[in-house]
Amino acid sequence: MLDGVVTVVDGAALAAGDLVADHDALDAQRLADPELDHDTPVEHLFEDQVSAANLLVVSKGDLIDEAAKTRVSAQLKSLTNDQTPVLMTNGKGAPLAAIFGLGLEDEAFARSQDFHHHHHHDDDHDDDHDHDHDHDHNHDHGHDDFISTVVTIPEVDDHLAFVDRLKTQAKAHGLLRAKGFIKVKGKALPLVVQAVGARVDHYFGGSLESNTGKLVLIGLKTINLDALSDALIG
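Given the sequence above, the corresponding structure tokens read:
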């Protein structure tokens, strides 16, 4: 199953008003590969690859200033109707943790388990303190540009409606990734949900320990995870 489409674009070239840094090298590469389309103009290829992306990664972000970053992001968003998240790289390399969900998912689940451990302990002393879901989205060490959280999702009656809601909210909030298990009324197996940007794949499988689902959300630190989480719960 295809997880998602990630397109990498040359930020320095776009900032300078071009699509690629070296047209001769690109032409040579295209001619050398019989599987590639040799006739389509690079402008059309660029637009096709950008429009097909679920995540857009801008390389060489550390080589352009803030004004150029704004122009590049605006150009890319205009090609995707502002529905595809744009990630800027820096000299440290691409943000693989956010692109693939590596580390951030595990850290979010670990924090959530720790949160619930302390929460249940506190409940022994505070019966009036209640949570429908937890928002534990401190900045991850080593991932300062991104935040992640685990949302507790009550059992849903209509899994397709939930998937549509996730797609809508992912577009609205610029969600990078989502992954988890959702309890669906009348279904023996939970719904496995994996999202890359606004692309959401789902199928029934796996197992849940309770009648509530868990969904990890990953976004840029500017994302409003509280609003997104509340919208998903309905």
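The first helix runs from residue 11 to 15. Try to locate this feature in the token string yourself.
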